[in-house]
């Protein structure tokens, strides 16, 4: 995870944390503001998020740096003069590092920094999670509607309007969970977009959503609490193969 320093412009720490007991196993720091993205195999990348380098040639450090899974060494880098180009697409559980170029071009960035153009979009995708199930590989994403796109083609397979803006998304065993700004947790069949359940959450300041390995949705709050919601039984037609 990424943690900003006391002055967000001058340092960002990247922590490797044991998810069992919270022990910090390793720490990497960079002397600038940065964001982080990662592939499902552990390869991760950081992007310089501050205009500190404008007017310098060449900038130091590179705009985007790619690291081995254990963080032991940098394996690639990309210089992007315009901070609004090559913006990370934070896709959970995805086997690729995804970025969006100017004009809505979604690209996959290889560890050696080679880019593969995948598809184009007309508007920001919002929160994104990758799935591979009986219906194929796909990106599920949402802002004010939930959408399933074939991956890597980008073809829209279904879309489902929502009554509220999406705060966060995650998926497990054929179900897409959407945490919404109106305080509801919506469960959707990932294969066809059918709404399975909508449940209200306590008013604790909803912040994030993560589905545990056993399928339990966990909702983080601004008060530092974690709300544990019961696991929903998955219809067999939507279950991952």
Explain how this protein is built.
- The chain is 0% helix and 50% strand.
- The protein has no helices and 23 strands.
- It is globular, with a radius of gyration of 19 Å.
- It starts with a strand and ends in a 13-residue tail after the last strand.
SSE order, one letter for each helix or strand: EEEEEEEEEEEEEEEEEEEEEEE
Task: Let me know the largest β-sheet.
Answer: 5 strands, mixed
Question: N-to-C terminal Cα separation, in Å?
Answer: 30 Å
Rounded to an integer in angstroms, the radius of gyration calculated over CA atoms is 19 Å
The percentage helix is: under 10%
Mean pLDDT: 85
**Structural class, judged by helices and strands?**
mainly beta
Number of strands: 23
Unreliable stretches (pLDDT < 50, length at least 5) are: 53-59, 232-241
The spatial strand order of the largest sheet comes to 9-13-14-15-16
Secondary structure tally, helices: 0
Assembly of the depicted chains: single chain
Strand fraction equals over 45%
What best-fitting shape do the alpha-carbon axes yield?
globular
